[in-house]
Design brief:
- The chain is of the alpha/beta class.
- The chain has two domains: 2-18 and 88-212, HAD superfamily/HAD-like (Rossmann fold, 3-Layer(aba) Sandwich); 20-85.
- It contains ten helices and eight strands.
- The protein has helices spanning 20-33, 41-47, 52-58, 68-82, 92-101, 114-123, 145-155, 169-178, 192-195, 206-212; strands at 7-10, 17-18, 87-88, 105-113, 132-136, 162-166, 181-185, 202-203.
- A six-stranded parallel sheet has the order 5-4-1-6-7-8, sandwiched between helices.
- Helix 7 (145-155) packs across helix 8.
- It is globular.
- The N and C termini lie close together (8 Å).
- The relative contact order is 0.20.
- The model has no long low-confidence stretch (mean pLDDT 94).
Length: 215
């Protein structure tokens, strides 16, 4: 199956990096400080979305009281301070290595700040697997569609030979805008029930992905 593709494009947070509960703990600290109910793991994954300001509002935060810019900086400051406590998802290195050994190109396309993305990939010794590392130019985790469209142009490959792997509906939307195939992994930031929208192709975890791609 992987032989159908010449290049795999990966999301980072919630797809390769297991930062789901870590992010929930940070937003819960912010909610608690604003006298709002904290989120269970299930509730967090039900309301998480892009742009993240929409899920902040779904969690109950009122931007007329505290701006999204202030809240977002508060979140990212703690995230950056403690992010290395996160681990990669099980089988992440195995899948990346297997694809790399087959001579298939790989890129990371993330809503994470570019410089921080480069740094954390280097920390986890993953840089060697990627031809392109692409992140946003700000900390507020908005859309990455424009970056995806630029990447397609840069790769100069037939779109049917590109595969996008992510964990959110936004990843599927980006892949659709790029005109490429996508697979969503259902143990990240959004629950499987949410991912099923629009007939997205979904696998439960990276082990299932490895089996599906015949790695």
């Amino acid at each position: 199956m992987i032989s159908n593709y010449k290049h795999v494009i990966w999301d980072w947070n919630g797809t390769l990096l297991n930062d789901v509960d870590f992010c929930r703990r940070i937003i819960n600290r912010i909610l608690d400080e604003n006298n709002l109910p904290v989120l269970s793991s299930k509730k967090y994954r039900e309301i998480f979305t892009f742009p993240v300001q929409n899920y902040y509002q779904a969690a109950g935060l009122d931007f007329s009281k505290i701006s999204f810019e202030v809240l977002g900086k508060d979140f990212i400051d703690e995230y950056e301070e403690k992010k290395l406590s996160c681990s990669l998802f099980e089988n992440a290195v195995d899948v990346l290595s297997s694809i790399h050994k087959k001579g298939i190109g790989q890129s990371v396309l993330s809503a994470y700040l570019h410089d921080n993305l480069v740094s954390i990939l280097d920390h986890y010794n993953l840089t060697k697997y990627f031809d392109n590392i692409i992140g946003l130019d700000n900390i507020y985790a908005g859309s990455k569609t424009h970056l995806g469209l630029s990447l397609v142009e840069q790769l100069k490959l037939p779109k049917e030979q590109l595969l996008f792997i992510g964990d959110t509906l936004h990843d599927a939307e980006v892949a659709q805008a790029m005109g490429v195939h996508s697979i969503l992994i259902a143990n990240g930031h959004q629950v499987k029930k949410k991912l099923i929208a629009n007939d997205n192709f979904i696998l439960d975890n990276l082990l299932d992905l490895k089996i599906y791609l015949e790695l």
